[in-house]
Design a protein that fits this description.
The complex is a heterodimer of chains A (442) and B (118).
Chain A lengths: L2 H19 L8 H19 L4 H15 L9 H5 L5 H18 L2 H13 L3 H16 L4 H18 L5 H16 L8 H12 L6 H26 L18 H18 L1 H4 L3 H4 L2 H9 L4 H7 L2 H20 L1 H8 L7 H18 L2 H13 L5 H12 L10 H7 L6 H26 L2
Chain B lengths: L20 E6 L7 E6 L5 E6 L8 H8 L7 H27 L7 H9 L2
Antiparallel strand pairs in B: 1-2, 2-3
Classes of the chains: A mainly alpha (442), B alpha+beta (118).
Chain lengths: 442, 118
């Protein structure tokens, strides 16, 4: 889209949002109308990506802080600025510090090499090893960085066997495994954090371990299913695949990163035993890495996803705005969501999440859907968790997720290959998530 | 961006004036990657660069190694990938055109200092 078209579209969105605030909507207060206008602005900007999605997140916080306090008693700018210091933002930032250190010292590469040395040379085992490594790393690191690393490892081999259908399996298996790997932990992907924050605000605290108990079975099952499907879709002609792996010497800094990571993860999983919150534990990695010089100012600048933190904060502020303005309650009563059976609501939000996340950022999609899901009233946990989990299964198009885009950018896979595998995986993922949500989430 | 280039300068040896230089990559522990430039003719020190990003003739691979920060938008990633592959080629073409039309004769540090103010 040209810059002129972008500017025109942006002003059109602003105009629509402002008009929304002045519509004569029955039963909706002035504050509610303002919040609805901000919601419209956020939804249209996030769907069209007319401005960077993180910028929209920041603007949303600013707009709510500007528009709502004057018309609401007891609500101040602090109500919305608090989104930037929400526990999940701190938790996520801590996760980014771990990922930054792991990447800087190539510990992700060490782990991948370790896995590949054990998978042998049989194509299906190599694919399984690559996918397992991608899924495991993206439980702790960003899905994007994981995919970039793994594709860089796979590319020399993929080039050698580029006429073999199995090369497509290798290139698709990595992003798909990275996408589902993010499901397993609260820090795996932003929608998980958004869901946890909104549920905590609704009085339903989800621990790190509890989320893992829901997410990990899905990650594991999906990784195995995707591995199996890719082997069927793109059967190998080659008999063996060899990766060249290099040993990296373990230095003191490597040890500091490994120990800090292990201690942090253990403390996250054992929150119920010691009572120290996950967000407080998340401050350990930044403290250790900065004191010891493992990470420098430049590393923090380039490796921490500040824009994603702003985006998530925008979603949290939007939810707060909808709640305090009465917009959530209005949506609930106007659209008779309470009258719907919990199963219908869970499926409805799951479908919306899958559909939206297929062509827009899944973080932005959950930013829009979870504030609505939280106001449904019945089976809140199930609806919210389903919305978050399903968003990570949308991997039909190259634009569906950054990992998909990276794989597609190699120029060695066709969009139709991704569509074919992505549709089947999305459907299976949807059903699997629904089953897990129904069985485990209360 | 290609349009931002306004002048180019060939590396010259400060001692013998030769433009034949060798790039030596130096990777010391706990230090950023540095490139030492040696004159091919007289063997003297020409310059040292601190590397911010390395892009080879395979831009896709270069970009993969540079992706460290998380990204939340697939569309944004597609745009970046498309722009990056085209950008390197277009920039190189522009640089050669500029070199053909005449290089800037000032010292490289003078040109860099001027650029900082922009």
């Amino acid at each position: 889209m040209s810059q002129k078209r972008n500017v025109e579209l942006f002003f059109a969105i602003v105009a629509v949002s402002v008009i929304t605030m002045f519509l004569p909507i029955q039963g909706l207060s002035l504050a509610g109308k303002r919040a609805l206008g901000v919601f419209m602005f956020a939804a249209l900007c996030w769907i069209t990506e007319v401005i960077p999605i993180a910028a929209t997140g920041g603007i949303v916080v600013g707009l709510l802080a500007f528009l709502l306090p004057p018309v609401l008693n007891g609500v101040s700018v602090r109500t919305f600025y608090a989104a930037f210091s929400a526990p999940v933002i701190v938790l996520f930032a801590g996760g980014y510090f771990i990922a930054a250190a792991v990447q800087k010292y190539r510990m992700d590469g060490i782990f991948t090499a370790w896995i590949l040395r054990r998978t042998g040379t049989e194509p299906k085992m190599v694919l399984g090893g690559m996918m397992f490594a991608a899924a495991f790393l993206s439980m702790w690191m960003s899905n994007t960085a994981t995919t970039a690393l793994m594709i860089a490892v796979a590319l020399p081999v993929v080039r050698k066997i580029k006429d073999d259908p199995f090369s497509v399996a290798l290139l698709l298996g990595i992003p798909f495994a990275a996408n589902v790997g993010g499901i397993a932990t609260p820090i795996g992907t932003p929608p998980n954090a958004i869901a946890i924050e909104f549920l905590a605000d609704a009085g339903k605290k989800i621990s790190f371990g509890q989320w893992f108990m829901w997410g990990f079975p899905i990650t594991l099952a999906m990784t195995v299913i995707i591995w199996y499907l890719l082997r069927i879709f793109f059967q190998p002609k080659v008999k063996e695949i060899k990766f060249e792996t290099r040993d990296i010497k373990f230095t003191t800094n490597h040890k500091i990163v490994a120990i800090t990571f292990a201690v942090t993860a253990i403390l996250w999983f054992t929150e119920k035993l010691h009572g120290v919150s996950t967000s407080l534990v998340a401050m350990l990695p930044p403290a250790v890495f900065l004191i010891t010089g493992v990470l420098t100012r430049q590393d923090i600048k380039t490796s921490v996803g500040w824009d994603i933190l702003i985006l998530v904060a925008g979603g949290i502020a939007l939810g707060t705005g909808m709640k305090v303005s009465g917009l959530s309650e209005w949506i609930l009563t106007t659209f008779h969501l309470k009258a719907l059976s919990p199963v219908v609501v869970i499926l409805l939000f799951g479908i919306l999440s899958l559909a939206l996340s297929s062509f827009m950022s899944h973080t932005a999609a959950t930013n829009l859907l979870i504030p609505l899901a939280i106001s449904v009233g019945t089976s809140v946990s199930q609806v919210v968790v389903m919305t978050a989990l399903v968003s990570s299964c949308a991997m039909i198009f190259p634009v569906s997720t950054p990992p998909n885009a990276i794989a597609y950018g190699s120029g060695m896979i066709k969009s139709s290959d991704m569509n074919k595998a992505g549709v089947v995986i999305a459907l299976i993922g949807f059903i699997l998530n629904y089953v897990v949500v129904q069985l485990l989430v209360r | 961006m290609a349009s931002n280039f306004s002048y180019v300068r060939l590396e010259h040896c400060p001692k013998c004036g030769s433009t034949e230089c060798e790039n030596i990559f130096a990777l010391f522990p706990c230090r950023p990657v540095q490139v030492y430039v040696r004159c091919k003719k007289c063997g003297g020190f020409v310059a040292r660069y601190t590397l911010l990003r390395y892009t080879s003739d395979k831009p896709y691979e270069s970009l993969l190694s540079a992706i460290r920060c998380p990204c939340s938008s697939g569309r944004q990633m597609v745009r970046e990938l498309e722009a990056f592959s085209g950008e390197v080629e277009a920039d190189f073409k522009k640089v050669l055109e500029l070199l053909e039309s005449g290089e800037d004769k000032r010292k490289i540090e003078e040109i860099i200092a001027e650029r900082r103010g922009e």
